[in-house]
Amino acid sequence: MTRCALIALSFGLLLLACGRKDPAVARLGRERITLEEFKTAYLEIIKQPNAFDSRELREQFLDEMIDRRLLAREAHGLGMAADERLAYRVGANRDRNLRDAHFRKVIKPGISYNEADLERTFAWMTEERHIRHLFSPTRVGIDSLYHLLQEGADWFELARGLFDDPRLAETGGDLGWVAWEQMEYDLGFTAFSLPLMVYSEPVASSYGWHILQVADWRRTPLLPEGQYQLQRNNARAVLERKLGDKAALAYISGMMKEKKIQVYPRSLRAVGQKLGVVLKRQPSTADQLRTEQLSDAEMGEIEASLWEMRKEPLASIDGEILTIGEFIAALNYVPYHAVHRSMKTALDFVLRDRALSAEARRMGLERDDQVRIKTAQFEQNRLQMAIRQRLLAEIRVEERDLQRYFNEHYGKKYPHLGLEETRDLIARDALIAKRAGTMQEHLRKLRSQLRIERNPAPIHAWYEGVLNRR
User: Fold this and answer.
1) How far apart are CA 376 and CA 373, in angstroms?
2) Could you tell me the sign of the dihedral formed by the alpha carbons of 354, 278, 344, 100, in that order?
């Protein structure tokens, strides 16, 4: 299958009706894995840049889903589903899925564009701009900066007095080379429409107000035919996403004007101090490609440092309390640049997300198929990861393991070497091999305890049917 076909496939799958009879593609005793569950999980696989749909990949992923389900069942039996940290994370994931359902039902139907918009998007996706900006969190602040520019103020002098970041202060708010896909719609439209060295009027983004200036532009290298077609196919999805983000921001901004917010200063300071200690890494464009914005290590460190305060109130929205524990879990779905910028910015995002999730609940979207399936799969994945970590944490490499690994991988190939000469070299690989073998044996035992039936035929019929309908 071509990469272009994959793009069309991945963006079209969820648009087809879900209300048909949902056949089982696997059975684990009395438990089923349905076609809809498979499609939901598999979509995340084939959206990855280097994944190519095939019958082999589908069946391989079905086997992985069976293994995950077996491990999650085991975790449930051991009481691991009652873990309070897991409950917070599952709740935050459910809220995110509710917001996605709200977007599909409320925001997406209002998105519109024409062929000229699409052609402009494709053209801009083949270019980059070298951008500077002046920034203010408020409209009043940016209007003041704009007035100073109109009165003849020097751009670089304004930047020196504006930015706390020394690099931005000394470079005139230089953002470097930026692709259109990396920018919010209004920012990108403004930047890519500007003549060189002409400053823009104030333009809003999700985190404040900007005045932009384009120092230079360049076209990306000529694309091979396959990548050219992929870029054209991808332009529609990128444009729809950006317009959707813009519409969603306008919607939630209007909603928040009616909300009554209360913040608890002591909690705000305590949480902000801890976040400042843990979250040292700088934001990057790679953050935009991830659903979960914080690593497990970062989340674990934040949880550990604030766990004793988890039930304390951090803020309230229309009288509904947001606890510190709920805030920590919600951070995983806040853009990392917002979390990194300041505690106040992070809290603003969490409160907006919380208001939108509450509206989705009032609409009854907890019953949405995708909300139920995605939340259940998130919990299952967390549980199976916890079992794996528990099992593998106990694995140690002993002398006989090193000797066996040496004999299998080095002894015949390098007869002049002995174990002592290679001990440090093979210790890590031997541990990885032992862990893999242990996990395979553990899964074999779990499979032997249940009657497992695989039924990949509905999977192949679905995907091949989708491709034939393109």
Assistant:
1) 5
2) negative
In this structure, which amino acid lies at residue 425? L
Helical segments of 394-418, H only: 399-406
Secondary structure letter of residue 103 according to DSSP: I
Q: DSSP class of residue 201?
A: P
Residue 19 above 50 pLDDT? no
What is residue 6's predicted lDDT score, i.e. its pLDDT?
Answer: 36
**Closest CA relative to residue 352, chosen from 14, 37, 183, 102:** 102
Helix, strand and coil percent figures for the chain, each rounded to 5: 65, 10, 20
H-assigned helices in 261-368: 265-278, 296-306, 324-330, 336-341, 343-362
Per DSSP, the three-state class of 215 is strand
Q: How far apart are CA 175 and CA 191, in angstroms?
A: 12
Q: Strands 320-323 and 313-317, how do they pair?
A: antiparallel
Tokens in use for 354?
């919380």
Express each pLDDT in 441-456 by its tens digit.
Answer: 999 999 999 999 999 9
- β-partners of residue 384 are none
Tell me how far CA of residue 171 lies from CA of 179, 200, 366, in angstroms: 19, 18, 48
Neighbours of 405 (CB within 10 A): 22
Token reading at 435: 């862990």
* Cα atoms found within 13 Å of the Cα of residue 374, Cβ hemisphere only: 23
User: Judging by beta carbons within 10 Å of its beta carbon (0-12, 13-18, 19+), is residue 37 exposed, middle or buried?
Assistant: buried
* Predicted TM-score (pTM) above 0.90: no
Q: Choose among 33, 39, 45, 101: nearest CA to 73.
A: 33
CA 401-402-404 angle, 5° bins: 65
For residue 217, give the nearest of 235, 196, 186, 203 by alpha carbon: 196
Residue for token digits 């054209």?
A: 232
CA count, 13 A, side-chain hemisphere, 387: 25
359 contact partners, CB below 8 Å, separation of at least 6: 102, 255
Q: What is the pLDDT of residues 288-339, one digit of tens each?
A: 667 889 999 999 999 999 999 999 999 999 999 999 999 999 999 998 888 8
Instruction: Extract the tokens encoding 305.
Output: 């440092």
Among 141-155, 402-416, 454-468, whose mean pLDDT is lowest? Answer: 402-416
What span, in angstroms and rounded, lies between the C-alpha atoms of 231 and 212? 26
Mean pLDDT, rounded, of the chain? 87
Residue whose token pair is 């059975």: 27
Q: How many other C-beta atoms are found inside a 10 Å radius of the C-beta of residue 41?
A: 20
The H-or-E segment that residue 208 falls in is strand 208-219
CA 126 to chain centre: 25
Gap between the Cα atoms of 360 and 105, Å rounded: 10
Cα gap 309→319, rounded to integer Å = 20
CA gap 184, 254 in Å, rounded: 18
